[in-house]
Design goal:
With 539 residues, the chain is an alpha/beta fold. It folds into three domains: 183 residues, P-loop containing nucleotide triphosphate hydrolases (Rossmann fold), CATH 3.40.50; 119 residues, no CATH class; 149 residues, no CATH class. Helix content is 56%, strand content 20%. The chain contains 18 helices and 15 strands. Strands 2-1-4-5-6-7 form a six-stranded antiparallel β-sheet. Strands 8-12-13-3-14-15 form a six-stranded mixed β-sheet. A three-stranded antiparallel β-sheet has the order 9-10-11. Helix 8 packs antiparallel against helix 9.
């Protein structure tokens, strides 16, 4: 159940805290006081969409927090769970469950099992045929539970195996297409006959070719200066020192150094001459280098950032081709397992279909009896079950609630025929029948009394009271007969403080409850309206 609801900066709500109780909580007040904003806030904390226009004028964010008491929930601490959602005008969301940050989708997934909101324009659950099979299975309860769980485990394995088969190219056309592509890629790399660092060497050769004229010119100059000028000059110096080397040992030492330089320079000269002789490049060589570099660039673009990565990719291709060519045996094993699972799933689906058909008649009869109590005496609900060829999470059954609201009319889907007031009562009838097996602890009804009055309103009040024995119920109403049934009645009004409108809420005592019911019933508080209020409360 919800123990406390805290709302900040939503519409005309400034900062509001509500302590709620178990059983039937009734919210009443004048139109525009903020009752629907409270329900909207519960929708926001349940993960529903939020419009930034809902943020209170002049504020940058809105905040909703609920304190829940769920003793059987694994996430609870001593049974208590705190859920909050903070939304800023720039669209940023901050959702938390017990202080842990979660996404909006995670919040929605968590809260859908805790709060169920119904209103005049918020009956999507009952209109969604996917929920009809859930309503029926909840009613059947333990008689289908074990079979359904066994089926779900097989359904999960069935999907996983089909996914694996698809990823293993279980489809023969897909397999052959992939194999052809891989072989084409492998051949393209192998034909290229790449070598590590080949691209760097080719880039260096291309750079030399592009500068061959400049290189040749300067090598010629260097060769001439070294081989002709420098060596001849040093040779002359050597001959000069040879004539005086016997006079002083220093001359002899320098002579030795000059001879060493002479020999080194001769070696350097030969290297320069060789480089000069190698600077001739033909067009064929240049074209080869350019084409080779283009090929390597193309392979890099397809298969890797460098030659090393391309060669690794080549090895991966070989492995994948080998795997695909040897997959047939493994795929056959998977297909055999899928066939075995399908046979078992068919068996379980047939059992569930039989059980559902058996209980559907009983459930529809009970709902129809509830509809009679809710002053829909001519309405008849029928549960249609038909088998499909495709597996789904519930077997092969599709379940749809059909309704006939007037004698002589045919059965049609709920969305096609039921009005807002009728939809509210149909939903109440279903909820009342399922109240002792429905695991959602909090049910919220926002003005579902719209379009009904008199005996129908009294019947709706009795059904809400009945449902509140098994769930915490919050109900916004404008009908005295429903307000009189409340275990806890809250009055919502608005006040102007510092030139700003604010929503206020008050838990009414017994005397205040009488006055509020009298006000709702007649529009004013008189002795007669108070007497009528007391009568409604006693009844």
């Amino acid at each position: 159940m919800i123990t406390t609801l805290h709302i900040k900066n939503i519409g005309i709500i400034d900062d509001l805290s509500i302590n709620l109780n178990n059983a039937l909580n009734i919210l009443t007040g004048e139109t525009g006081a903020g009752k629907t904003l409270i329900i909207d806030s519960l929708g926001i904390i349940s993960g529903e969409r939020f419009s930034k226009e809902m943020i209170r004028n002049g504020e940058e964010y809105s905040y909703v927090e609920v304190c829940l008491y769920l003793p059987d929930n694994l996430m609870s601490v001593d049974g208590n769970i705190i859920v909050s959602r903070e939304i800023y005008s720039n669209g940023r969301n901050m959702c938390k469950i017990n202080g842990r940050m979660v996404t909006v989708n995670e919040l929605k997934e968590f809260m859908k099992n805790i709060i169920d909101i119904h209103g005049q324009h918020d009956n999507q659950n009952i209109l969604d045929t996917q929920t009809h099979i859930e309503y029926l299975d909840k009613y059947i309860s333990k008689d289908i539970c074990n079979i359904k769980e066994e089926y779900k485990e097989l359904f999960k394995e069935y999907n996983n195996l089909n996914t694996e088969l698809k990823n293993n190219y279980g489809d023969e056309k897909e397999k052959q297409r992939k194999l052809d592509l891989l072989k084409y890629q492998l051949n393209e790399i192998e034909v290229a006959n790449l070598k590590l660092n080949e691209d760097e060497e080719l880039e260096n050769d291309r750079n030399i070719i592009m500068n061959s004229e400049k290189i040749s010119e300067n090598l010629n100059i260097a060769d001439y200066e070294v081989s002709e000028n420098s060596i001849n000059s040093i040779n002359k110096a050597i001959k000069a020192f040879e004539k005086i080397e016997s006079i002083d040992e220093n001359y002899s030492k320098i002579l030795g150094e000059l001879k060493s330089v002479y020999y080194d320079l001769q070696e350097t000269g030969r290297e320069i001459t060789n480089l000069r002789d190698d600077t001739y490049f033909d067009e064929e060589q240049r074209d080869y280098i350019e084409n080779r570099l283009d090929l390597i660039f193309s392979l890099k673009r397809k298969y890797g950032n460098n030659i090393e990565e391309i060669l690794k990719y080549k090895e991966d291709l070989k492995k994948e081709i080998n795997n695909i060519e040897n997959l047939e045996e493994h795929n056959n094993e998977i297909k055999e397992r899928i066939n075995c699972i399908s046979l078992k799933m068919n068996e379980l689906s047939a059992k569930m279909n039989e059980i559902r058909k058996k209980y559907a008649t009983d459930l529809q009869n009970k709902i129809n009896n509830e509809l009679i109590d809710l002053e829909m005496k001519n309405a008849k609900l029928k549960i249609d079950i038909h088998n499909t060829d495709e597996y789904n999470k519930n077997g092969k059954d599709e379940v749809q609630f059909l309704i006939c609201t007037n004698i002589g009319e045919s059965y049609k889907p709920l969305a096609k025929i039921a009005s807002g007031g009728e939809m509210s009562r149909i939903m109440l009838a279903i909820k009342n029948v399922l109240s002792n097996v429905d695991t959602v602890p909090v049910l919220i009804f926002d003005e579902i009394d719209t379009g009904i009055s008199g005996i129908a309103a009294k019947s709706v009040a009795n059904k809400l009271k009945s449902i509140s024995k098994y769930h915490q119920v919050l109900c916004v109403t404008h009908l005295a007969s429903i307000a009189a049934k409340g275990n806890y009645n809250y009055y919502i009004n608005k006040e102007t403080i510092n030139e700003k409108t604010q929503t206020k809420i008050k838990l009414l005592n017994n005397e205040e409850k009488e006055k509020e019911i009298a006000r709702i019933a007649s529009g004013e508080i008189t002795d007669i309206s108070l007497q009528h209020a007391r009568m409604l409360m006693k009844s």
